[in-house]
Design brief:
Blueprint lengths: L13 E7 L5 E2 L3 E17 L6 E18 L4 H7 L3 E4 L5 E4 L6 E9 L6 E13 L14 E7 L2 E2 L5 E2 L2 E5 L3
Antiparallel strand pairs: 1-2, 1-7, 3-4, 4-9, 5-6, 7-8, 8-9, 8-12, 10-11
Length: 174
């Protein structure tokens, strides 16, 4: 829908599907917060003629995108993403985390929007590297416990020669 239109107002909900490198896709569970943050390093060229410097060209270098996800389903696998851990399934069915036992957690991430209000957003990020950015408190107090992880979207080159960090598709609201 072209702007202006109240149909474009957005109240996002959805789910994230994580596929660790060499593993099977899984649902990360309920998402409290999910945000993409692009960043660049802006290089400006200044023209130094005519009495004062004037910017006559800009280029954006060092492109990066970070995805921050806050989850409130405390599973061994979600904690492992925060604690850079291998998950060991014990013979009694419990799971043990080997804290900081892996140096990188990489894979593919997909966000599937399922909101009722506004356009639906679907993101496919084929190469993501997650690391710890928050803390985990085993005592929650008055709120539900949460796990916060941040992933760097890694640039990939497609067979057509284009390089990017993934794709997002927006479907107009009905």
């Amino acid at each position: 829908m072209d702007s202006p239109s109240t149909t474009n107002y957005f109240q996002g909900t959805g789910k994230c599907l994580w596929t660790p490198a060499g593993g099977a896709q899984r649902d990360l569970g309920n998402i409290v917060e999910c945000e993409l943050t692009p960043s660049v390093n802006k290089l400006e060229h200044k023209k130094t003629r005519g009495g004062s410097k004037k910017t006559d060209f800009t280029q954006y270098n060092d492109q990066a995108v970070v995805m921050r996800i806050v989850l409130d389903e405390i599973t061994a696998e979600n904690l492992a993403m925060l604690l850079m851990s291998e998950v060991v399934t014990n013979t009694d069915g419990t799971k043990t985390l080997r804290l900081m036992s892996v140096s990188q957690i990489t894979g593919a991430l997909e966000f599937v929007g399922d909101n009722n209000v506004g356009n639906k957003v679907h993101g496919v990020f084929p190469s993501v590297s997650f690391g710890p950015t928050g803390s985990f408190s085993p005592i929650s107090g008055d709120d539900f416990g949460q796990v916060e992880v941040t992933g760097d979207l890694l640039a990939i080159e497609y067979t057509d020669g284009i390089t990017d960090f993934g794709q997002m598709t927006v479907t107009d609201a009905a």
